[in-house]
Each structure stands twice: as C-alpha cells, then as structure tokens.
Request: fold
Amino acid sequence: MNNQRIFSGVQPSGSLHIGNYLGAIKNWVELQNKFDAIFCVVDLHAITVPQNPEELKKKTIEAAKIYLAAGIDPEKSTIFIQSHISEHAELAWILNTITKTGDLLKMTQFKDKALIDFKEVDSAEEIGREYSKSQNLYLEEFKNWKSIFSKSYAGLFNYPILMAADILLYDTDVVPVGEDQLQHIELARTLARRFNKKFGETFVVPEPYIQKETMRIMGLDDPAKKMSKSATSEYNYISLTDDEETVRRKIKKAVTDSGSEIIYSDEKPALKNLINIYTSFSGKTFQEIEKTYQGKGYADFKNGLADILVKFLKPFQEKMNAISDEQVLGILQKGAEKVYLIAQEKMKDAKKKVGFIV
Ligand code: TYM
Reply:
C-alpha cells in the first residue's frame, strides 16, 4: 500500500451497467489494495437531470450495494453519499468563482445532455451531423446556443465544477474512471493549479487512471455510442441488475456487423465491442475467443457471451440481495463520519486562503 489516495464516484441516476463496472468499479476493487481509497455515490450530480425523489433514494442505496457486491471492502475503502458532506457543494461554489465560462463550454458531456433536452430527441448522435463535426462548431453556432441555454439548467452546466470539488476536497492523487470523464478531470487539474497560483499551495493536482481495454464500452444497439445509463432504449445496455432472460434477450438483439466470421477488428466495431465485453468477463484473450468460434456464426458467439455474462451476474446479484438496506446505510454513515474530518480540514484551509473569517 502506498500513501497515495484514489477517489471516484458513480451517479445513482439510472441502472448501473456493465460499462460502469468494467470502466470504473472493477478497477476500484483492484486499486483499493494499493491506495487509500474513497468511493462516493454522487447524488448531487444525479439531480442535474430530473429525478424522481423516491427512485433517487432507491438508486442511491442500490449503487452502494453494487460497490459492495463488486468487491469494495468497507474495511479497506471508505464509501459514502456525496450529499452527506456539505463541503462538496461549498467548495464547488468557491471553485465556481475561478472557473471561466469558456472552460465549461468545452465540455462535451454538457453539450450532449443539453442538446438531448433541447431537441427532445433520444441521443445527441441523432443530431450529431448538425453539431458535432468539430468542437468549435458549438461555439460558432452561438445563436442556437442562446436558445439552448435558455432551456437548460445551470446545474448541468456547472456539473464539472462539482466533480472537481469532489476530487480536490480529499487531496486525491489518482482518479480511476472511464474515458468519458477525462475532460472533467482535466478541468479539476486546471482548477487546482489556478487556485494554488492565485491563493497559495492548497490542492493536489490529480491524475486520471484509465484502463485502456475497458475505458469505453459501447452501446449494444449502436457501436458508435457509448453504453449509457440515460439511453432511452434498454437494448443499449446490460444492467448489473438484469435477470438471465433479459440478458439473453438483449444480447440476442445486439447489433452486429456484416459478414459472419468472429474476428476482432476495427472494421467490425459492433463485434469488437462484444468481444471486448467477452474478454473482460471471461479472462480469455481475443485470439482464444476467435479460435473458439472459428467456423461458427454470430448466434453461437452470442450464446457464449450471454452465458459468460449470466455466470458473472448471478452470484453478483446474490451478493447484492444479501445486503440489507440497514447494513448499507450503516456503512455509508460510517464512511461519511470518516471523510467528514478530511473534508472539513481542507475546506477550512480553502476558506482561509480566499479571505473568509473562519
Ligand atoms: P457516471 O455515473 O456517468 O459513470 C460512472 C463511471 O463509469 C464510467 N463509464 C463507462 N466506462 C466505460 N464504458 C462506458 N460506456 C461507461 N459509461 C460510464 C465513467 O467514466 C465513470 O467512471 N461525473 C461522473 C461521476 C463523478 C465522479 C466524481 C467520478 C462525480 N464526481 C469524482 C470521479 C471523481 C459520472 O457522471 O460518472
């Protein structure tokens, strides 16, 4: 164990899926043995898009159970709920005052989410041709942005600042995430440096940690889109709580490429994604998988993949179901008590530095 700290979190905003597991949570489980580890259920982030309050409560508890079932050990790692520590919102406010609007305008996740709301369509990809040719096009088309901004909420726009606060509050050295969060971590780094330069050394500049093979699991219904909790079609993802019948049905319906050979290639992006998932859950190499399905077709391969997923998910869900709400709430409470001390101290320092009377 080194004395460096990792921090990461997942939004309880929908069904956590195998992309969240492979891109983030699975890595946390390995890293908790080497680092001082803090994992958060980020409910403040979840409300940046509309949530049903009762559902949000359930999803928050479910997310924590998923951490535990995946192998996060509360004896080694600290897990807690973001809204239990008010310092996250407090530091986010201070960081707001050193964030330029231009920093936030670059964020692709905001653009995607705001555009989905604005256009009332299923995905940003649907209108991608119009807007996503280049990053700058968004800014060039400011006329449209004026109307988009008038409809979208400030919380969604400022979301990356809250994420920076999460990370900086705990002197985080390393942030294990999927690729889609890289841009947000870059902002956290910028804000740490900017604050330190302006007010004196206060925050650690964090580094991202990305596992290349699983950093971007794509949607089962479209290999050009990432697997996403907020996808409108359930055929986009395999949820960690899906039962066997659902897993088999979704894998059967997953899009494939032309041809029938099972080969791992960039020319077959849909199959490549499925093989990536197969590899990650089975430990088999691409070559082994190609060999197993040589001379066989997609149907056999998909059956094999569904078997692998069910074999992982069944015991996973049994573990989840064996944890009671009371148990998990107790663990989260203990976690909050532990991180509170760190958060409070850091916040005091930041407040003093900006000139508040503490
Ligand atoms: P969220 O809830 O969207 O996703 C949680 C984690 O899952 C990863 N992920 C994926 N990885 C691979 N393939 C995919 N298709 C896929 N979809 C999601 C994400 O990269 C992420 O690591 N803003 C964050 C949550 C957050 C956070 C933080 C993370 C808030 N504060 C501080 C780290 C540190 C988010 O919305 O993640």
User: Anything to note?
Assistant: The chain has a mean pLDDT of 91.
